[in-house]
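User: Can you predict the 3D structure of 2-oxoglutarate dehydrogenase E1 component? Sequence below.
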Amino acid sequence: MGNESHDFSPPETWGDPSAEAQQGPSWDNPRWPLVGGESEDEFTQALDPTTMKLAVEQAAAKAGKATDPKAIEEAAGDSIRAMLMVRLYRVRGHLAANLDPLGLSHLDEPEDLTLEWHGFAGQEEKDVYVGGVFGYEWVKVRELYDVLRRTYCGNVGLEYMHITDTDERRFLQDQFESPEDTIQFTDEGKKAILASVIRGEEYENFLGKKYVGTKRFGLDGGESMIPALEAVIKYGGQLGVREIIYGMAHRGRLNVLANVMAKPYKVIFHEFSGGSASPEDVGGSGDVKYHLGTSTDREFDGISVHMSLVPNPSHLEAVDPVVLGKTRAQQAIRDDLAAHAEVLPVLIHGDAAFAGQGVVWESLSFSGINGYNTGGCLHFIINNQIGFTTSPRFARSSPYPSDVAKGVQAPILHVNGDDPEAVTFACKLAIEYRQKFKRDIVIDMWCYRRFGHNEGDEPKFTQPLMYDEIRQHPKVSYLYSDKLLEEGVIESGTAPQLREEFEALLQEEFDAAKSYKANQADWFGGRWAGLSKPADAEGARRNVETALEKKLFDSLGRTLTTVPDDHEIHKTLGRVLKAKAEMFDKGEGFDWATAEALAFGSLVTEGYGVRLSGQDSGRGTFSQRHAVWVDQKTEEKYIPLCQLPHGKFEVYDSPLSEYGVLGFEYGFAMADPKTLVMWEAQFGDFANGAQIMIDQFIASGEAKWLRANGLVMLLPHGYEGQGPEHSSARLERFLQLCANDNIQVCNITTPANYFHVLRRQMHRDFRKPMVIMTPKSLLRHPMAKSSADEFMGEHHFMRIKSDTKDIADDKIKRLVLCSGKVAYDLIEKRDEMGIEDISIVRIEQLYPFPGAPLTTRLKRMKNLEEIVWCQEEPQNNGAWTFVDRLIEKAAADAGKNLRPIYAGREPAASPATGLAKRHVAQQESLISVALDLANVGKSAKVTTSRPKKKG
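Assistant: Sure. Here are the predicted structure tokens for 2-oxoglutarate dehydrogenase E1 component:
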């Protein structure tokens, strides 16, 4: 596989989805196996037989015993032991590093880092051959030991020897061990670091004085992060970064907003006083200050870098995949997917959360995966050495909070937060590594939390010894200014003057905040230009034009059914494509998958992007989609929709993750409203694993943060007797979240209606998340077909689908309203029984609920006696509790005093039975109730002589 197998970053062709799909066999991962690796490091180079022979000869000659076998053996042994010591410091030196500012973390000195363990006790002045390590050919044992201690056991500890790639390891080693690359800053650089730390400290002090007792999750104790993050901007800009997307914890967020993101202090003070950062007429519920985001541009050395901080909820680390998805989208927009050089994701974590939250690993796992890779993320852990009140020994089993990152072979820099130069150096090295290798890297800054979890807590309840030490521990700026005074970099009045000047600036901004008023919201700029909030009310919204011209329809048909001559597809797929070609020839029988492909292809042809991801999205969980055609001899992949001009089609089989992948796709859709972004669950129930993303971002993100989003969720749903985990997509949970025109919830029954709703999603001048209960059995149901003309002409998405049977309005006595698959069961049974006065109407869009058109229909039914809501789900699930009063209101508006009757399963703790006979009995029962079969034959409802059947 050659040297490419060393490279964890994807091949350049990964920017092209059609090329991405043709990388060879599905089992061939270009990143594995990692050849070379540790066998090529300096340890083995120094012990190369030729090198050792030369070293031994030189050593023996130096001792005047060129032919003495014992002297030769001793020289060889000394060299081997010296190189073993070097290697052990590279692997384990971080365990003896000076990391804890409080000095409370007492780790026993590893025995194998001592001279005694290596057999050099009392031999400190002996010369040993090390073959160029640290620039030495020959070196005294003491000198080698001292340089190893300074390098690997100072205020920065480096973990990197778990990395298999030789080039990456050697780069870190060279940067860490070369004298010119160690922690060195000019006097001006040191003054800038001091000023930045002082800004961070004084900002927290000012907030503490002006807003006593108010939660702010201050950075107190971790202020070294501020100059370090500025270093990422500065050095990143020099290395090609033009945009940084941040996601972060609560702690220090306000400080980062002010001192890194340059959000005006007066705006933050205005928000502290209860004001909003947006105009009053924008609406939305808003959110607390330490959840908010912002965007800005900062310039260092003439290079401007755009930065955005993604808003996030209290759910720890939930923002991580959102940032990565947004980064991927921005890289696509900037044509940066091949190089991954211009857009950088930076995630700032808490120590307990990084170790404890599973979404951290889900996000790390994207780092080398086709379609999700962002070219490396810089992770910065604010290591308080404590969670809310939980000590590390109760919070994790690993020595460090960062250990999970070793799973993707990310290097880890542990650094003492009381040394701002060391923290800044760590970030400088991190951005250099990321830009060179396009890999994740972690900075683990050991610091402390000067106050409790928030400023109102009493931390001594649970950590009295730690907080005794903290209360007498000097602040970072005082320690650092004393150091600079000692070095002669600053004068005695420099630091106090910086504090006074900054406090005066804050006071000016505080005074200005009293009269501050936001004059615009920032949510429809840039790529979102031309989009807006909906202009009309949710109930009166008009459909947009989504039908196709026949020429495009026919052209797409050829694309979807033409197999390249040199591509050998599976014989069953051949039959599928033959059937698909017949649909286009005859103009009828279009199934769900074909309608979907027509929607995708037409959008791509119109210049939109289409991105679909999920655990089996290429083939489809139910072998229905076949978006990717796999050659049966070579496993090369052909994607018909990638052959279309103008736009871009991407389909990815995702990691087995719901939380992380759904968050990633939400982040992608946040950045790019011109791409139809879809996440598909393998089964709808599996969205349970992503409930935090649904509750905190998808359903409420627009109201809280003024961030629109057009993400589509495809959730297979339907009761076919497959048990509790393969039936219900928990429709009721989504409906419970519906309010203020926040999301769209659909349960669609025809391929054409699905086609139109997907196209409507992109052709509207606004974006709302959409949740679709996609079918399983309806994918191939003989009644769930559409004709060609339903995709063309004046056709559009129908929120309400009329009965398949033409029953005169004045003949209808009973109206059965339903949604989804059960409609066809009802229609089949009704028609089998010959019932002529029951109409079955499907509600295709449950929210926003189509109350007005339903009222119009009800007015036409002059002799209506009963309205029934029929559903497959148990009574405490499904749509019943949501639609009950909405149907009643529509009836009242139509002048009818009718309450809907429920027809469905009994209330149940489990979503569905796993017993086939019980499922059939339940299904027959709810159909019977809905159609009132118990009374069939007792009235004029039936026009057949067929005998009455039992319900």
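The longest strand covers residues 866-874. Residues 1-40, 939-951 have pLDDT under 50 and may be disordered.
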